[in-house]
Write a structure and sequence with these properties.
Layout (H helix, E strand, L loop, with lengths): L6 E5 L3 H12 L6 E4 L3 H11 L2 E2 L3 H6 L1 E6 L6 H11 L6 E4 L6 H7 L4 E5 L12 E5 L5 H12 L4 E3 L5 H7 L3 H16 L4 H22 L3 H8 L5 H11 L2 H20 L2
Parallel strand pairs: 1-2, 1-4, 2-3, 4-5, 5-6, 7-8
Antiparallel strand pairs: 6-7
Helix pairs in contact: 7-12, 8-9
The structure holds NADP nicotinamide-adenine-dinucleotide phosphate.
């Protein structure tokens, strides 16, 4: 294998690698995906699911890749990069870290021979709708920035951000918000007398279709709220009670906790 093969090497074959590989295949991307992980069974599962190739030898895998993606958990990044450096491989030009909260300067300190990009894909990329914020070291060339963006655009929209915005967007754009809100609304629906299935259908409509309508209509949130909530009606009473109970405060506190966790990762 050589650099012209346009292979992508994932270091770490866990959740986000699985979602990205599936999304890339769904988009019809037939380029080689190599995956290196210390759990061979995980890579075998990805091999079956998304036709990835098992990277058994780290050095030859790195030297055969055009792009290297660090997809281990934040606490494992230093160790993983130390392994990369120790194996003595010639490094690819494009190195991207998916590790939440780990700043470019830390990546540079661990492995300085390359110019780093960061990306924060969402597992929704599995169905081609994952939003991926990206940021780059200043020295990453325009052409390489385009390559990184194009890669993630295969699995959904890409947002260019400044690095200092990455922690905030990581805390905000997580699809967990949708699942969390869906679970909370469905539970309240069951408490109010609906069965489990109907509760989920109703809650998913309220959240998913409501947001789809916002996107499709181009109307502002205020306009849509005005349309959906009759003054003095049930929706108005529901929202007012939620706000009095601290809905906005709870969401803001959650986001602050997420940002703080990302900042903790930066000190690893
Ligand atoms: N999950 C998401 O939705 C998501 C979204 C955006 C970004 N990210 C970022 O992506 C990264 C990976 O997240 P994830 O949820 O996919 O994690 P994960 O499911 O735990 O996958 C990471 C994999 O890498 C392996 N690994 C760690 N160190 C290794 C080493 N030195 N050599 C070989 N294999 C090694 C892990 O094995 P062990 O379990 O034995 O450590 C694990 O199998 C994180 O930094 C996270 O912040 C995740």
């Amino acid at each position: 294998m050589n650099r012209e093969s346009e292979a992508t090497l994932f270091l770490g074959g866990g959740r986000i690698t699985g979602a990205l590989a599936a999304g890339l295949r769904l988009a019809g991307d037939k380029r080689t995906i190599l995956v290196y992980d210390r759990h061979p069974e995980k890579v075998r599962a990805l091999q079956r699911e998304s036709s990835v190739e098992v990277a058994r030898d780290l050095k030859s895998a790195i030297e055969g890749a055009e792009m290297l993606i660090v997809a281990v958990r934040p606490g494992s990044v230093k160790e993983m990069l130390a392994q990369v450096v120790a194996c003595g491989a010639a490094l690819p030009r494009l190195c991207i870290s998916l590790a939440a909260g780990i700043p470019l300067k830390n990546l540079q300190a661990s492995m300085g021979a390359v110019r780093w990009s960061r990306a924060m894909p969402s597992p929704v990329c599995r169905i081609g709708r994952g939003l991926t914020p990206v940021c780059f070291e200043r020295s990453v060339t325009k052409a390489d920035r385009v390559r990184v963006r194009k890669f993630f655009e295969l699995v959904g929209p890409v947002l260019d951000l400044r690095e200092e915005q990455m922690d905030a967007i990581t805390a905000v754009h997580s699809s967990t918000h949708g699942y969390h809100a869906l679970a909370a609304l469905a539970k309240a629906a069951q408490d109010a007398g609906l069965n489990h299935k109907t509760a989920l259908i109703a809650a998913a409509h309220a959240l998913g279709d409501g947001i789809f309508y916002w996107r499709a209509s181009g109307l502002s949130l205020d306009e849509l709220l005005e349309e959906a909530a009759t003054p003095g009606g049930i929706a108005a009473a529901t929202m007012a009670a939620m706000d009095r109970a601290g809905y906005l405060r709870a969401v803001a506190r959650g986001i602050r906790a997420g940002v703080k966790q990302a900042q903790k990762n930066a000190r690893r």
